[in-house]
Structure formats: C-alpha cells, structure tokens
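Re: the request from the purification team.
They wanted to know what the chain is likely to look like in 3D before they choose a buffer screen. I agreed to run a prediction and write the result into the notebook, where they can find it.
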Amino acid sequence: MKKISYFVSIVFAVLLLVLGCPALVIAQDITEDSGTVTSGALASAAGDTGISLFSLETYTDSYGAQLDGDARQLYNLMVQNYVTEYSQHLDNLTISFELPESISFEAVVEDGAFQKTGEEYESAKSKVSGAIQAASDAFSYDYPQAFWFRGGSYGYRISCILDDTSSTGYRATFYGYSFNPEKREIAEGAHWKMNDFMASVQKTVQELNACTTGMNRQQKVKAVHDYICQNVSYRNNSTMWVHTAASLFLDEDPAFVCEGYAKSMKILCDYMGLNCACVSGTAKGTAYGTPGAHMWNYIQMEDGKWYLVDATWDDIGTEASTRYLLVGRQSMGQSILIGEERVEYRSFSTSSSGGSSPIFILPELAERGYGEKEEEMTPTPTVMPLLTNTPVPTATPKPTATPAPTATPKPTATPAPTATPKPTATPKPTAVPKPTATPVPVKTPAPTAAPVSLTLQVGQSYKPTGKIKKVRTSNKRIAAVSKRGKIVGKKAGKTTVTVTYTNGSRTAFYVKVQKGIVKTTGVSLNKRSVVLAKKGKTFQLKVILKPVTSQQKITYKSSKPKVATVNSKGKIVAKKKGTTVITVKSGSKKVTCKVRVKK
C-alpha cells in the first residue's frame, strides 16, 4: 500500500478548513493495485449465473453498445487508443481515465488509517472491477483486429475524508484510474505488429471487394468464408497466437484454431460492410457426443435476421463445405439440429476476482437457414476438424478507418509452421474499389428470443409469461408441457421445450430435470442503494433468483433495525435517521442493499 506525499494531504486539509468544512482526519491517498482482468482468451460457461449489467433486450450492432456508465467510458477509450488511433499509442498502451459515475463508500478507519475491509469497501471495489471487466470483455469480442489484446492490469487511488452523514464517520472515493494491457498480451511486444497486421487486413479487403463487385450479400459472405477456408489450415500449437486472427494476416503458412477462423471472419465482414458477431460456446457433432469449446459467427442478412456461419467446421479440404454457411437453429448440422448441436455462452471471460463475469446479449439466431426450405433439411456426413479444448470469445461493432497499406507485410516471428497451406481459389483482383456498406433494413420480423436454461426438480413446474399460441417438447417423458405452456418435470434428464407466442416470437427452453431440489446460484435486487426521506417512508425490494426455479427460501435482515426494518416479503420501512444494510439471502448466495434514512 503506497501513500502519496503528505504535502498534498496538508494542502487539501487547509482548503477544507478555509471553506468551513470539518477537519480532515484521513488526508492520504492510498494506491491500490487491483490485479488483472482477462478477456478474449477465455469463455465462461457461467451462463445465467453472471452479473447482468445491461438493460437492452436485443443485440444491435455490438456488445459494446450494451454497456453504459463507467464501463462504456473505458470501452470507448480502448476503441480509440487500440483501434482508431492505434499507431499513436504503440509506445504507451496505458490508459489514464476517470469514471463518469463516481464510486464512493463508507470507509472503515482505525488509528487514523484507512482499512481495506468491510462490506461497503468490497461492494465498491466490485463495482470498479465489474466495469473494467465488462469493458475489456466487450472490446475483445468487438475488435479482434486488436489481436494482441487479452485483458490488462488496472489500478486506482482512494481518498478518505470526514463525513458526518456516514455511519462510520468517513467517506472514501475511488479516482485516478489506470489500465495497462501490456503485460497481458498474447506474446511479448505483440502490439508492435499492429501496423503490419492492419496493412495486410486492408490489402485483403481490397482484394475481396474487387472480386465481389456486383455480388449480393449472400455471395459476399460466401466469398469471405471460402477465402478463409482456402488460405488457412486448422492447427493448435498450444500458443495464444493460434487463438487470434494474427496468422492469416501475418504468417506465410497461416494456421489457427476456431477462434482464429471466427475472428478473421468478423474482421473481414466488418470492413466489407457485413454486420457480423463472434459467438462462443460449446458444440458437439452427434446427439450423444461430448461438447467441446468452440467459436463461430452470426451474420445479419437483408431480412434483418442473424444466421450462423462456421468456417472452422466447413474447412474440410481443398474446396470448402457450405454445410455451416448461413444456417439457422432448425437447420441440420453434422447429424443433429444446430439448436441441439450448440450451446452459446453469454459470459466471455472468467472473473479475475473469482466472482461472476458480466453477461451480454447475443444476436438472435434465425430458426431456419437463409433461403432454407423444409425439404432441404437432410443430413449428409462431413468431416470436422477437432475442437480446441480452450474456451473462447466474441465481437461486433463497425470498424473505424485504418491506414491504407503501402506494402505487403513481411512475416513475423511466430510458431514454426508444420503443415503446407491449402491452395487459394480466390481470383486475383482487377480493380480496387472502395468498400461500401450494405444497408440492413430497419424493419425486422418478430424476434426469436435467446434460449433459456431451465432447471426443475422432478414434479416441479414452471409457467412462462406471455400469451402462448403453441408448445412443443422434444421428449415428453423428461418434461411434459400443457397447451398453456406449463412445463412439468417428469424424470431426470434433459430436453428442449419450444414455446411460440401469439405475437409470432418464440423461445426455446433448455430443460434439465433433476431429482434433488433446485438451489440458488445467484441473487440480484432492483436496487442496491436506497434513500428514504424520513421516518415512515417505505421501499419494496424486488428479488431475482438464478435460476428462476430455485426452491430455496429468501430471507431478509437489517443490520440496524432501529434505522430501518425489513419484513419477510422485502418491504423496507424507515424508522429514524441513519444508515443500515439489508442483507438478502437464498441458500448460500446473498446480496446487500444500503439504506439511508435522511431524517
């Protein structure tokens, strides 16, 4: 713990006295090195157990668009420093910034020294790490052209002052933030290859645009898909390099794993005006196969719908397969439907603090493939490359202008290639037109909601909200469903229940039925901080359990009942001036809400 100069402290204290403020007891800044966040290299199976930071209901054009407040501020700085103006920041990757939404807390002070302890401190620290983790995660999925990036270390300062409105007598505020990704790169000094990487990207985009002049959106997507399959080999050499798009644009013998395919697809589509997102999760080749970590893409077409593209699994030989080119949830995959073959991750990293990772909204995958008809859904066997056993990430916003290339980049020092590259079938360009974006229509059909994971005990039931038109279950022996949508667990196992609503939207419930009770994996509140004007004022806490089918009881407790009480249904009643903390618990999980009564 490093203390700054007492001279600054004394000046600050004198200033407060001149202004008529209480004397400053703690007048020192404490520098906190809060560790690191990891993004882009890992995907989390946390699913619905993470921290949902966002209020959007549908994916728009990026994961970053879902951020707000502190997280969005840092995300924008990352985009500016590491993508838009990357050439100006290669000498120093560290970002210094202030968060727009001040984070403060009631500090614990003993013997004139700030103590890093207490629920208030832990909660405030969690807000800081959550914002930085969310910004890092969204950036790594939205901008894979920053191929070297996989998180960073961060630090901040804490200032403590006297505050007679605080229950502890002191208030502390976080400020002076810094973010440094340099020691978290995929390889030492990898960011120095950005100039060569971006020059190669621009050259490739120019070639593809020349080859696809006059083509429609579907033909352009196929051209990008085929280009990647024809120029890259699937290979895992156990380095971070193959988990990025670097090899395609920097190596003489390009080779990588599924992340490299998906990120390359994302980069090229973005610069060609095709709205594309990276999606990570697990995939299996057969109904009883073992799921493996995987990454693929969703691409938006003229009808406003999103379709799956998996260049990795289509890279089966000299000529690319089209099995996984613009397909939907009900399209046939290797031997089972896409919706059964794949499970999407909504968390893109593991939290460095051991807590839950931020949750993002994914594009809604279309039910059927682009132009697909019922009779076309017949399986034909394909050979798939092995899945990487390392979890993965995703991306999406529209890229910014990059410098035009002047020369073909020289290959950089990378893992030694062992495979011979496959021949390229892409025709040579005859012209170099400027990239043009294909507009996406504003009007879209009724949305198909993202799949919902549902856990039930045998005999337990769950009823989705909304007006239901029809229902279907893939195995009624595992879970039965009534015409009104009531799902009942019958015996231990897994099945899928599809509910279609009267407005045309549809939700797939991935149902797991178990013998034991359903335990709580997460608790969240409608408010984490409440201010009540005076005695007698009330506030109703609303609790959301994860999973929603949890059978464990919810309990409420006030740390200072004389300040405010809370009943068994979560209703808070102010009693007198002061501050208290309401603890809400279900099973082993809990969350707190700070309550301040003014008078």
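For the purification team: The first strand starts at residue 2 and ends at 3.
Please add any questions underneath this entry.
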